[in-house]
Design goal:
The structure holds two protein chains of two kinds. Chain A is of the alpha+beta class. Chain A has one domain: 2-Layer Sandwich (Heat Shock Protein 90). Chain A contains four helices and five strands. The model of chain A has no long low-confidence stretch (mean pLDDT 94). Chain B has a single domain, classed as Transcription Regulator spoIIAA. In chain B, strand 3, helix 2 and strand 4 form a beta-alpha-beta unit. Helices cover 43% and strands 32% of the residues of chain B. Classes of the chains: A alpha+beta, B alpha/beta.
Chain lengths: 146, 111
């Protein structure tokens, strides 16, 4: 597969969570992923977009940008917001840590992204926003293996 | 997402269908809790077999309902046979404290 690229920008509304993960999954479909790989990608995107809505913009209005690059068998997904940023990244990435326990958040968002994708990098500047970059190699399987 | 609630003697069955994410977990939580407290039940059976997607918002939903049932000395049991849903449940560590069965009949027996 040669290189491919797409960019998607949408308002930080929770009904865009489903929309955005489906768009990324459709883009990833050209790598012919297994259902499990697609499910992993959708879940990781959903986590990052939900974080941007709840924590980045704290339910306020803002733009979320998703950029995807396909190179060979790998997809790179970059999800950015221009929200409040994360002041303690180490703490935020700990399993079960949540800054909003009253909302019944599980605190598992970053753990899910880490588990379901191959790599995860988070860059955040307080007052300027957060960018989550994830990559996943989609295995090449023969038809019998599917 | 579709949610069907059915209340029996001492348990509530919540059947969730479709996608469970942050957008619709809040409404699901309110509806399940209202029924749980109004009917004065103590056990909850969460049927996740017809979910096509679940992220960590679903984990939050399960954790909260587990706590409500436990506060009433009851149990929360998950019914599921979908491996993608089971993967995220297992990853979260929830299955170390919550029982999971493939059918509602088995779940009712285990209450």
């Amino acid at each position: 597969m040669e290189k491919n690229y797409m960019k998607l920008e949408f308002l930080s509304k929770s009904n865009n969570e489903s929309f955005s993960r489906v768009v990324v999954a459709s883009f990833a479909a050209q790598l012919d992923p297994t259902l499990e790989e697609l499910s992993d990608i959708k879940t990781a995107v959903s986590e990052a977009v939900t974080n941007a809505i709840i924590h980045g913009y704290e339910y306020g209005e803002g733009l979320i940008t998703i950029e995807c690059i396909i190179k060979d068998r790998e997809i790179e997904i970059k999800i950015s917001d221009k929200g409040k940023g994360i002041n303690n990244l180490e703490e935020a990435m700990e399993p079960f840590f949540t800054s909003k326990p009253n909302l019944e958040r599980s605190g598992m968002g970053f753990t899910v992204m880490e588990t379901f994708m191959d790599t995860l990098t988070v860059e955040s500047v307080e007052g300027y926003g957060t960018t989550v970059k994830m990559t996943k190699e989609v295995k090449s399987l023969s038809d019998e293996e599917r | 997402m579709l949610l069907k609630l059915e209340s029996k003697d001492n348990y509530l069955i919540a059947r969730l269908k479709g996608e469970l994410d942050h957008h619709n977990s809040e409404l699901a939580r309110q509806k399940i809790d209202r029924c749980f407290f109004e009917k004065n039940t103590s056990n909850i059976i969460l049927d996740l077999r017809e979910l096509t997607f679940m992220d960590s918002s679903g984990i939050g939903l399960v954790m909260g309902r587990y706590k409500n049932a436990k506060d009433r000395k009851g149990k929360l049991i998950i019914v599921n046979d979908n491996r993608y849903i089971e993967r995220i449940l297992r990853m979260s560590g929830l299955l170390k404290i919550i029982e999971l069965y493939p059918t509602i009949d088995v779940a009712v027996e285990k209450l």
